[in-house]
Design goal:
16% strand
């Protein structure tokens, strides 16, 4: 009887995870992984304890990913979408947008800021209800061929549309000749 109760609990714990018994980092936020780890650790089986360790490892990975990407940016400042500008231009490219900064010196810091905010959103399973183009699962942030540009791209069309829409809403364009 005890074995069937433990097995039933394991099924419930496994079913509460987005991917079943296999724990993947991006299936939930770091906080949700920690909560799932606590629930699984309460079950009296080796399998549930292993499952708890997997959730704890996933939470630790997401938290470390954010810390690594954010460097010296305090946690209290990681939630705000970084300024997408001042830009000389914003144009569609295959898979997303290219933001061309008015000042080429801004690109290096902009990429670092964008990657930090993406890592922040990833650690929270993109739960923030903001219009930031970086708070979308599956985004890639890369330096453009033009040394003044950054590209925000994705692989699936729905994400590409969202990146384009949100980037246009967040972009701060400067007028030439001022």
């Amino acid at each position: 009887m005890k074995a069937s109760v433990a097995f039933s609990f394991l099924l419930v714990v496994g079913a509460s995870c987005a991917s079943g018994p296999l724990v993947r980092d991006d299936d939930m936020s770091a906080a949700q992984h920690r909560s799932a780890a606590a629930r699984a650790a309460e079950a009296p089986t080796d399998a549930s304890r292993d499952h708890a360790r997997e959730h704890a490892a996933a939470a630790a990975f997401l938290e470390q990913f954010e810390d690594d990407a954010c460097g010296g940016v305090p946690p209290s400042e990681r939630a705000a979408c970084p300024l997408l500008g001042p830009l000389a231009g914003l144009e569609d490219v295959p898979g997303g947008v290219r933001a061309t900064f008015a000042d080429a010196a801004r690109v290096h810091d902009a990429i670092a800021e964008m990657r930090c905010h993406y890592a922040f959103a990833r650690a929270r399973h993109f739960e923030e209800s903001v219009s930031c183009p970086l708070y979308v699962h599956g985004v890639e942030i890369r330096r453009g061929l033009d040394p003044r540009s950054v590209e925000i791209v994705a692989r699936d069309e729905a994400t590409v549309r969202l990146i384009r829409e949100r980037s246009r809403a967040q972009a701060l364009l400067v007028r030439r000749g001022l």
